Records
---
Amino acid sequence: MEVTNRYITTKTHIDGAPKESLFELKTEALALSVEPGSNVVIVKNLYVSIDPYQINRMKTPGEVSHHLILLYQVRLWLVIDTYGVAKVVASGNPNFEKDDLVVGLITWGEYSVLKEGTILNKLDTVGFPLTYHVGILGLSGLAAYAGFFEVCKPKKGEKVFVSAASGSVGNMVGQYAKQLGCYVVGCAGTKQKVELLKEKLGFDDAFNYKEETDLQSALKRYFPDGIDIYFDNVGGEMLEAAVDNMNTFGRIAVCGVIAEYTDAGKRAAPDMLNVVYKRIRIQGYLAVDYLNVYEDFISTTSDHLRTGNMQALEDITSGVENIPSAFIGLFRGDNIGKKVVKLADE
Amino acid sequence: MEVTNRYITTKTHIDGAPKESLFELKTEALALSVEPGSNVVIVKNLYVSIDPYQINRMKTPGEVSHHLILLYQVRLWLVIDTYGVAKVVASGNPNFEKDDLVVGLITWGEYSVLKEGTILNKLDTVGFPLTYHVGILGLSGLAAYAGFFEVCKPKKGEKVFVSAASGSVGNMVGQYAKQLGCYVVGCAGTKQKVELLKEKLGFDDAFNYKEETDLQSALKRYFPDGIDIYFDNVGGEMLEAAVDNMNTFGRIAVCGVIAEYTDAGKRAAPDMLNVVYKRIRIQGYLAVDYLNVYEDFISTTSDHLRTGNMQALEDITSGVENIPSAFIGLFRGDNIGKKVVKLADE
Ligand SMILES: NC(=O)c1ccc[n+]([C@@H]2O[C@H](COP(=O)([O-])OP(=O)(O)OC[C@H]3O[C@@H](n4cnc5c(N)ncnc54)[C@H](OP(=O)(O)O)[C@@H]3O)[C@@H](O)[C@H]2O)c1
Ligand SMILES: NC(=O)c1ccc[n+]([C@@H]2O[C@H](COP(=O)([O-])OP(=O)(O)OC[C@H]3O[C@@H](n4cnc5c(N)ncnc54)[C@H](OP(=O)(O)O)[C@@H]3O)[C@@H](O)[C@H]2O)c1
């Protein structure tokens, strides 16, 4: 059988904020069968993850010095890989059969043709919706869990600040911190998000950073006794303000710096004298390094979701043609919770 | 008996580089006896330590937000405390007797009147010159030892970069790293210092940072395979360049940021995307937190000095009136090794 596969590509490298004009929806005829001897797996994409880090892979090569980004750069006019959930339609790989539900690195498209070596696993839904496995029980969730518990080494009662707190990673960090018995304040970019953090997700407090003229004093107001843990999703001025408000032996997990992704001029220049005198630890990390806690993460998080101690926050759009706007929206704060694009019914 | 005590004070707060005109040499009549019932200890200062951090205590209070600095601010027109070696001339404290050699927090002056609670210990010279106990076997040495071994957690064969490498802390870090079997490159501000690092102290390589127009490429030249450990004494542009050249899972010990002490405009804005993707750890620390390794530090360092595996690098000036210029010189790179001012013969 042959289908028409539609998928997203980039036409040029990106500097600054992403725009619709940088992307193109391409169309190809795709045979849903695997040649004898090939171990390719062809999947029908159901849900794909929309993540800020993709922009770093789309930048002009000279702009980035990190070998990991260079290694995994998005190639112009080619498919863009992404975390997501899919259904096998044809398989030359003995590990997968037609109709298997799988999770792993698929593409921003309707179908994915996956070569051997692609990260792909059979999906056990453990009774949760498929979308959960794209984010909450996927890499965003693991980033939150590992970043908070393994990197920050939190203790009950500690004061935790989370930026981009209504986002995919941020909202879960705040909820994990509440489960542990921390005092948690988050910041986000709209009134509605701030309300949601306080009312629905149980944050002790929250504020709209766009309404603050002086972030250092804002944090002083929300943390009169200082911050023990800053979970950084944004970098820039917020990181500077957090460093100024950290307590002695404070820990900063640098999960991401979205404010700097589209504008290198926004780089944080934290007061290193504070870093020395307060013995602050600033630690970058990647979720993928923490597969050793993956089972703990899934079981702990599943339990909290089942008992209602944690809430799932998702933001779902439909249609491959809407992937670019979903992605662009991340940098404008359009999303509330994990941004997912639905491509097909199961 | 009464003597004339001469000591250094500050006349105003300092912003920017320190100048002679900010200091004043004061004179007082001092009775070398202790009132009955008082537990004051009066000491004759022999050698005092000259340290960059003192400038942070001399700044206009609003310029610094770190409570530790505020708490220990130098007060205008009063004595300035410092690490040093002295001899007891009169004591109301049963732990000390006349003629005891002591080490601890004395003053930038000829005599010190030390109240109960002042950090002060009897000195066992273990066969080394008194000056060693001011720096090499004092707080500078402990800063180097703890910062390198405890904070950086080095492994044999790792590639280590040290800034202000001919300074008090820096030269010892490089020497410890060589003892462990690391590859060590240092930077310093003159040709003479660079030669000394390579010829006398056994650094694998060294360079004059003032002759480099592009620090990022300079580090790439000296570390074609990247830096595993950066021991930061200077901050600013050097920290940025180091972050760009760090290897995956690299560690940065932030011992101090002297380039930023006299000019907050020189604050480092490291590429946090590199911090994330390379999982870099940036850790501020203070030597005083590591008294638990003090005995190891003394025994290891004494052994290395005795066997000649490590060299003592000291820079000694005489006379209380020369304390300001010795201090000012730190920020101009005048000193080679531990800067000490001698105040009296033993
Ligand atoms: N280290 C890892 O392994 C790992 C894994 C996943 C994600 N990450 C990182 O974690 C961070 C959050 O990712 P996510 O997937 O959870 O995305 P997300 O938070 O769901 O979406 C991005 C959010 O960031 C906020 N934002 C956008 N531009 C901003 C700016 N200039 N300043 C402040 N906030 C801004 C927006 O919310 P507002 O309305 O609040 O502005 C937006 O909703 C990103 O930096 C990402 O790269 C790291
Ligand atoms: N965390 C702790 O517990 C602790 C303890 C002791 C010291 N420290 C810190 O460690 C650092 C070194 O202290 P130290 O006692 O060993 O002093 P030092 O290195 O003996 O003296 C300072 C040296 O720094 C260099 N320097 C001055 N201004 C500079 C600039 N703008 N850029 C680059 N280099 C500059 C100069 O050498 P060049 O000729 O190379 O420029 C100068 O000789 C300082 O930042 C200090 O505050 C921290």
Note: The mean pLDDT of chain A is 96.
---
Amino acid sequence: MFRVDLNSDIGESFGNYVLGMDEEVLKHITSANIACGFHAGDAMVMDKTVTIAKKLNTKIGVHPGFPDLMGFGRREMIISYDETKNYVKYQIGALWAFAKSQGVELQHVKPHGALYNMAAKDAQMAKAIAEAVYDVDKELILVGLANSVMIKMGKEIGLKVANEVFADRAYNADGSLVSRNIKGSVIHDRDVAISRVIRMVKDNKVTSVTGEDINIQADTICVHGDNPSALLFVQEIRKALEGEGVKVEPICSFIK
Amino acid sequence: MFRVDLNSDIGESFGNYVLGMDEEVLKHITSANIACGFHAGDAMVMDKTVTIAKKLNTKIGVHPGFPDLMGFGRREMIISYDETKNYVKYQIGALWAFAKSQGVELQHVKPHGALYNMAAKDAQMAKAIAEAVYDVDKELILVGLANSVMIKMGKEIGLKVANEVFADRAYNADGSLVSRNIKGSVIHDRDVAISRVIRMVKDNKVTSVTGEDINIQADTICVHGDNPSALLFVQEIRKALEGEGVKVEPICSFIK
Amino acid sequence: MFRVDLNSDIGESFGNYVLGMDEEVLKHITSANIACGFHAGDAMVMDKTVTIAKKLNTKIGVHPGFPDLMGFGRREMIISYDETKNYVKYQIGALWAFAKSQGVELQHVKPHGALYNMAAKDAQMAKAIAEAVYDVDKELILVGLANSVMIKMGKEIGLKVANEVFADRAYNADGSLVSRNIKGSVIHDRDVAISRVIRMVKDNKVTSVTGEDINIQADTICVHGDNPSALLFVQEIRKALEGEGVKVEPICSFIK
Amino acid sequence: MFRVDLNSDIGESFGNYVLGMDEEVLKHITSANIACGFHAGDAMVMDKTVTIAKKLNTKIGVHPGFPDLMGFGRREMIISYDETKNYVKYQIGALWAFAKSQGVELQHVKPHGALYNMAAKDAQMAKAIAEAVYDVDKELILVGLANSVMIKMGKEIGLKVANEVFADRAYNADGSLVSRNIKGSVIHDRDVAISRVIRMVKDNKVTSVTGEDINIQADTICVHGDNPSALLFVQEIRKALEGEGVKVEPICSFIK
């Protein structure tokens, strides 16, 4: 049987600023990556997000980012190994408090933005993140870019890992994502995107931007809930997957 | 047998900024209140502080404050009940991650600065803090100003509480601290301060600024490690207490 | 001839967070209060806002707030006289740099949120703000709640002042705003709101919540551009005023 | 006649955190680079620093940094051209307000930490900084690493520039600083450091770490006031320069 998780970045509002259609998207995904106040989110938003996720029985995870609210964690910062490790620990703990208060468990950790992208390639940064997760709670699943250094390092440290794939992004022949600055990096045709996702999940294959078929493990698919159109696409992907006999479940139910 | 705890605010450095003689004062106290990044402290400082406290076997607790680094958490902020509750939860969680990583337990929560002072009088704020602590971990001891609304509310919510007294501060007849703006609020004579502390611990009495003896419960004494002189005073208080047969121990060993 | 200014809070976006229909509302108002990075806004947003305002020939002013992005500057903070003064100076300077770069002049300063409300009643806070403005540039017009301590203090310090009125808010008999917590504080009937505004501008009168007519000077009317409905209301107010023969102009054209 | 400026980073305290012996070092230098609240400093510190500098007749300049208080502006951040430009403008304006209030003029702009180092090599970042300065006030002198891209770009944009040299740092053969990670990057022998400084000022030469003599323009020498020993060294350098007939003056008196 085929199984896959649908994850989305949630809880990215801050103070008076509202971002994302969280309540809606939480109904359609199986795992929520919750911002922890460094690149987005705050204590009020975290509490509210955990409350809604619990009610909907959506699994929650930590979404740690760089300490850069102004840049939404999307700007690379050259921070040390220890800084990376401690920033991740801090953010895990912060979200843990809200999960603990509500009697729910943290399922996973998925780095955000520039931290995610850097850790996909930089072994030291990946190691710092993986160690932070392991030290705080070795049962947490580490989510990273499929086939990346982050996944490799998570395994080495002894964590359960989940390979993440993107429905709407083009891949290089080496399995990395085509940079957003390059034309063709984003797949706008929804039918093409859905076909690719189904192939990744069922055949573990995707066609790279240069035409080769590459191997890819698809444990979890990243989806977005920024606007009504994105939200609709989440529902379409889910329906298409289920129509193909793929069971859409949280990663904790099949990543061991 | 008489028992008392010595507590101090620790881990108040931030980034490049160093504050306090933490490594020294941690040797002489029994409980450390560790800043959590809102009014002071950061993830690097928290990690280092927990590491040192563990090595010295000093108990650690959470020292949550207002989100006001620029004002060091000493400025009153009119925040809502839910904001208070969630800010405290967030900070408990953040420190928990470092404690968990090191295999040590959090012993207590003591609000910082303006949050401490407001919660000593404001029942709603005190309730929000007590509920936050209870919801995250009901075994945590809540430290508040002796006889204050914070202590009363902690008990009502079902928490273990520790009454805090100050060696160097004058008390009003109602048990509240004389405001720092008023002359005579700080006791500069060390011998007088020490005598008062011993009387508070052994007889549960202190003479108020207006001359009356008032009842006061002294579970923990607040001391400072800002400079060599303050550090020396900590050692003097401890020695004097022990000379009087008072056992200086962390609150967890006698607050049940 | 009757003249009045229409002002609105603009440039309240931050980083990735978008707030307000700035480009639209800037077309219909005569004075924009631009956030300066303390309670909202950032350097990118400030640059963009000044650029658009310049193109539309809308006058710009400084909108200083408390250093509380998480609370959007709406939470009271008990800060010192010097802190107030220096925080206001800092924010004036920050916006000045963008105005200077574009070759436009700052017209006014209007405190934001809790700073505005506190300064309407607290003479010390009002004085600190007025002195900050005067020290940096004594030609800047200080905008405050009509009849408030802020206006009085601005005059005393030697500044030009503009009395601000609200179309959609009820007034107490003493000229202060009815607190938002009280029922009836906000006037939802647009026709009533517009009639009140016209009366305030032409007759300098408004009926208080308790039924008395009170004197009120209306130099500038606060309007909002948060959503399409609010934006439409701005256009309706402007049209109604112009229909009554009131000239809608920036305060600098009639406040001397 | 030989002339040189002595500059130091000043006003790096923040809130309750005190850094540097500002009042002392301001007596011995001719130009102060004042932090503006991004990587260090706050409105209170800026006001105090400008006040002291004015009293001592020490020239003041803007010391803009990355928005990274936690990293003290020493961590590289990959920010855009527009972000760089607007962050620099914002910080110039913020300091301008305090200078304007005190009736003193801003003399120069010197980027801080990682921004300084990146701009020494990255032409786009250098250009963004130079344009920001030019747009706000084209009379401001831009201070950058001697012979660097920052200096070149400042000239191209049309600014007056000042070449900065370091007494205690080793130089590569291409005129760049030897990285702090490399052994021998810092010159600890004070006599050697002083001799090098005098040679740079009088002969425009310095011996690189690989033994070659390189050409270097020394308009201003960077000194530190972090501790009593550093402070003493400032006095020694100044005395040695004056003993060699070098006039120690602010850059505005000889950079045209």
Note: DSSP finds eight helices and ten strands in chain B.
---
Amino acid sequence: MGVRIGQMETGRLNAITDVEGVGVGHTTLIHGDPPLKIGEGPIRTGVTAIVPHQGNVYLDKVVAAVDLSNAHGKATGFPQIECMGVIETPIMLTDTLNTWLVADAVLDYFRERYDTTPRSLNPVVGETNGDFLNDSFGRHVRKKHVFEAVDKARSADGRGPVEEGNVGGGTPMTGYGFKGGIGTSSRVCGNFTVGALVQLNCGRREDLRIDGAPVGREVKMPPQEGREPGNSIMMIVATDLALTSRQLWKVAKRAVLGLARTGSYQGVSSGDFVIAFSTGKVSPDNPIEKDYTGNIALGGGERFLDGVFRATADSTEEAIINALFKAETMVGSHGTRYALPLDQVEEIMKKYKRL
Amino acid sequence: MGVRIGQMETGRLNAITDVEGVGVGHTTLIHGDPPLKIGEGPIRTGVTAIVPHQGNVYLDKVVAAVDLSNAHGKATGFPQIECMGVIETPIMLTDTLNTWLVADAVLDYFRERYDTTPRSLNPVVGETNGDFLNDSFGRHVRKKHVFEAVDKARSADGRGPVEEGNVGGGTPMTGYGFKGGIGTSSRVCGNFTVGALVQLNCGRREDLRIDGAPVGREVKMPPQEGREPGNSIMMIVATDLALTSRQLWKVAKRAVLGLARTGSYQGVSSGDFVIAFSTGKVSPDNPIEKDYTGNIALGGGERFLDGVFRATADSTEEAIINALFKAETMVGSHGTRYALPLDQVEEIMKKYKRL
Amino acid sequence: MGVRIGQMETGRLNAITDVEGVGVGHTTLIHGDPPLKIGEGPIRTGVTAIVPHQGNVYLDKVVAAVDLSNAHGKATGFPQIECMGVIETPIMLTDTLNTWLVADAVLDYFRERYDTTPRSLNPVVGETNGDFLNDSFGRHVRKKHVFEAVDKARSADGRGPVEEGNVGGGTPMTGYGFKGGIGTSSRVCGNFTVGALVQLNCGRREDLRIDGAPVGREVKMPPQEGREPGNSIMMIVATDLALTSRQLWKVAKRAVLGLARTGSYQGVSSGDFVIAFSTGKVSPDNPIEKDYTGNIALGGGERFLDGVFRATADSTEEAIINALFKAETMVGSHGTRYALPLDQVEEIMKKYKRL
Amino acid sequence: MGVRIGQMETGRLNAITDVEGVGVGHTTLIHGDPPLKIGEGPIRTGVTAIVPHQGNVYLDKVVAAVDLSNAHGKATGFPQIECMGVIETPIMLTDTLNTWLVADAVLDYFRERYDTTPRSLNPVVGETNGDFLNDSFGRHVRKKHVFEAVDKARSADGRGPVEEGNVGGGTPMTGYGFKGGIGTSSRVCGNFTVGALVQLNCGRREDLRIDGAPVGREVKMPPQEGREPGNSIMMIVATDLALTSRQLWKVAKRAVLGLARTGSYQGVSSGDFVIAFSTGKVSPDNPIEKDYTGNIALGGGERFLDGVFRATADSTEEAIINALFKAETMVGSHGTRYALPLDQVEEIMKKYKRL
């Protein structure tokens, strides 16, 4: 549509896969129709895998950090990341109640695909709650779906353009009262790249802002059905700039700034988690043009982080918008979740001079 | 001007003093002209006192929490608030290098004004760096100025309308490249009130957003002088709703959402601190209209917090804008800091349909 | 043996079940012999359930807090406890690689046993690594074992004396180079009770202290086999004193003091987690005799916590010792783990005048 | 006396100054007699400076981390250390109510002694409350005393043996009901050194343990006077091993293990803070003998930290004991604080076979 968030340039794919080595794979499961019958369907779920590089992450761990912004969620693996400052598995995204079966399957993946039998392993699984459309309690994501997602993430396709919207872990999700799901974006900044990927399931319709325009309040839509729309968001930030876990912890916190700009108040029931990791492909020496730094005169040694912060907030903000732009109307267990009406959005954006 | 942030109503004064019992007092020191002579001037500084109630706070402590959002700052008293969940002194705001003398003077205040000689005391002093305009190293705020500010905060005037802009601790500060300083705002929400007060000294000009409109990029201004504009922001949130320190910790985090909406990326050198406190005048039983809650169906017992979160983000966002609207152009030690040109802002807001 | 840790009295059972309503159930699985064949055995594992009360914890949550002392571990559910200040499921303890299957089974338990189908659930599962004796990768704990443990915890037997040593989640564990496992203890303190239960799998032999005596350095034992002994400890603290989550957070940190007194240095690979919860049966008004408080003159309102802290550290210290005293020599996948030789310990304790 | 804590070797001086470049300076102020007259005396106070190296720390910052173990205290500078991972001033220790005047004087020190005028500075001042013996409210530590302490720390003498007991910031302090103050110790470990220095003002008499022996319960002393003995402890850990701030954060937490072993329950009113810093003189490649590591088989890359952890806990434990051994009986504002009776201690240690 031409919406442009911030002043930095996007990467070639405008996706987290612009960070070299990062791969994304989705397994999407859509079967059956309402009414809900627990254990049978309707099935509107899936799993998304993000690999930080193409090797065995357990053997070649990557530096990472987390922000538990509003930790009303079940994501696994976060305490150990805080303690050790690394991730050692692909990052998996799925529907809440699949979380533990997905974590368990990641263990098998290492044995069956890498021929590594870890004595211990810290699977990182993020989740949001898709039960408005999905038979969540049925937990329809199986080991084979997990394997399929990681296999795809490790393929050449996995390092290319990233499917967005109703795919993978994002399949049944809701964003700002509209159909949500997976979104991604990236920014190139001097000699490094920052990419974000979100699984969007949070926000209230009236709060939605796109590049500052009050889209949520202006869109005309059928009255919302009784059941509360989604909650929670998982935000993944990747960079090829070599950073310490303390620096990445601060990067992770900037993803929440991007979320705020799209309108969220981070409701009490929202599980808003961020993981930031570095592939460490490029060094932080002279990484950034002066134009992107806000604070040249102050603070000394870490001022290159300002560019990373900006790239993180902007790419997260845009990833959220991209999830809404790409998701399509879906019927599921408790009703219909409508896609953001792009024709209306275009009008609104023009009215508010954002296009 | 008519800018309206969010959908909730403001309090009578649109100030933190709408929270009953809260008082604000400023001591403003403006003397001398450039050039800078350390210890002599120019003096562009002051101190602001916020009292949570009209009694002796050391004896009647109030529940509180903090968020160390980007803790590149010297604020005192925060670790003990985290540990004990209370504040026991007025909250003081000043220029960075005055921090410790102000804290020390608060101790004297208790002895001299309350006839209380604490064995130990945890003065809470927030700061931002005003040295673009002020002889900061000269530390011109003295004990008498501290006393004057607290005395005012405890007077009837202190509980009325709050002066904003170039006053108190905010006197020399910068916001988004324009003249910044003190700003305040409030929201009324069902049976309770939330008020915010900020000492604004952060942000880069191009990033400024007012109610989503890209004001910073549109304003035409003389080229900025060599020295880096300000950094850091102190955000104080008060409510009369009885909350625990864990709940206030989450409230504090929502102030940062309001900051994000005005455009900040929280630069690496920015000291962005939040204190939230409760005077506990009203109970959280049935505190809030359904309209203000985003998440009725989920989450259970704490969903009333959603209204508090929204009121916090909105009043913080507006307090920042109010600081910019009220601050006036000032000449000081390293040059001139221009006020936000309100006539241009009005045009821009109209262009972007925000007025 | 007569070892007495600290100066407070133990409860009637000297167990976490002295806190009224708390129940404990173990499922212990011991089958097969070496050599290790992944997926077949030897099986030396199990699961322990701790219920904070006899009702449906999802519907009647209890106030809780955690300390992530050295979070090199996979425990689930901790971030949400930090955010919301409650637990809503039984606390489960098991071998590391069972973690996620156990968490998933807890979900089924609510549907099948309580007829509650949660939209979302935050299972709390703690783990330590038992693979020196157990076929850990085989993940031999199944849903039925989880159900059995929770069922027992909810029975009258579950509220009685607690089996210790090679039982439940503690079955294959190691403590200070000796056979470890489950241990428990309690303290009665004025009008309230504190109980601790640990799953002990950490420590180096030479470091073991019992009531200050250097038992680990004095015990004569066969030379240790090649494989590194265990790591990690899960510590659960319960009290019937009504506390806030902030207060329980501080209680949780005192469990680590008890651990320190038994000799641990909290190795970098150790997953040392604490959960503290309150059943809120008694109020903190006048809860404690003057004798137990260290700090009468200072600090004001929370000084009753001093007694809780002391009870927590002492009962955790003793729970660790009890695990060692009750565990028996076990042969498993990678060798033999010998029980602490109690006859030698008695001699050593006499030598050091601790008996 | 021959007490030996742990199994590692001490450095040449058994002091934090065994870490090359670290210097310590005390200014001790003892004047006047009871009764207390606020502003006049009796004066039993002082200030201790620890410099991490002999240069200008503001220009050459050192990597650092903190643990806010029980943050009921007024220490300044800790939030910025958490955020930035460095210290940029000497670490100062003093009596609580001097905290802010000392912080302010450190600012002057940079201008007057280093000819550096910082725009901003993060003075790190730790404190414990000495008002049992000292006219604390009188705040008798002045700028010249601060300068004197830092000057000494930067001299050749400052890098030699460290005075302990009633000196510097420790002058009026109490430990376990006996006279406390400053203590220090060190451990050499493979190719690196760890040193600890404490300002001891916490603990209850009956709880004191020396190398596990229950000294506090056995010592016979005159009945204690009415006023509550001290609270709080500041613990400083230095190493020449190059560590990240995340690693130093974990090191800082191990100081508390040493504290626990001397008997403290960390009372609710205790301000127990740790700062750990690295001078980075040696690299962590192969830093440590196998003998000192507890966890060879597990965990991978950071296992060298186990030796650092052990050295930290042991040297902190011994520093506390050394403070008690060196402090002498003192009369002050509210009574007499008796030194630990070393002749009795020797008997007790022999009885418990610790000598």
Note: Chain B touches chain D through 38 residues (CB under 8 Å).
